[in-house]
Amino acid sequence: MPNNKLFDWMAPLYDKVIGSRDPDLFIELLDLPIEGKLLDAGGGTGRVSLALKEHVGQLFISDLSRSMILEAKIKGHDKLVQTSVTENPFPSDHFERIMVVDALHHFPDQKGTIKELIRILKPGGKLVIEEPDIKLFAVKLVALAEKLALMGSHIHSPKEIKAMVEANGLEAKIISDGNFASYIIAEK
Ligand SMILES: C[S@@+](CC[C@H](N)C(=O)[O-])C[C@H]1O[C@@H](n2cnc3c(N)ncnc32)[C@H](O)[C@@H]1O
Which of 81, 120, 155, 182 is the most exposed place for a label (fewest CB within 10 A)? Predict the structure, then answer.
């Protein structure tokens, strides 16, 4: 099943199954508050970023899945864009902040995605990518389960993602939460 169809199917249950997130970590990693624009790319139902809305001038959520976007709309959000992350409609140098949470490994062209996100990030803007850390056994099991479910996902290591970001001329750093996820952070 193409992964947008799978997420279309999962959308109504997604937040309940996956659970909520503490916004404080993202406020810190994204250097909020800001008056400018934050894009949550592959942001799904807005599970993570909707709690950041009051800390930014404007919050945009983009996602390929119509049903995931619809869930964010039901929660009352309006700056929603249904698009593939590599073919998004935004101009260059547009967003002060871009976040990608638990989604990069679902994108078919991860190098192309990162290049595209850097294109639409403003100079001086910040990109934060959260990915499950494939070095951890629990994450290897998740990766295996996603393969068996034919989700077409591929989890790269934090170092590989850092290299993908740095291939675009940015310096990136890795922060680990010591638990399940790593954060690759770069300034344009
Ligand atoms: C695991 S969910 C994470 C959603 C959200 N970031 C969160 O943490 O709640 C991955 C999301 O990526 C979206 N997605 C998958 N492939 C995509 C693509 N090529 N372009 C944009 N979004 C995509 C899916 O529709 C889904 O909403």
Answer: 81
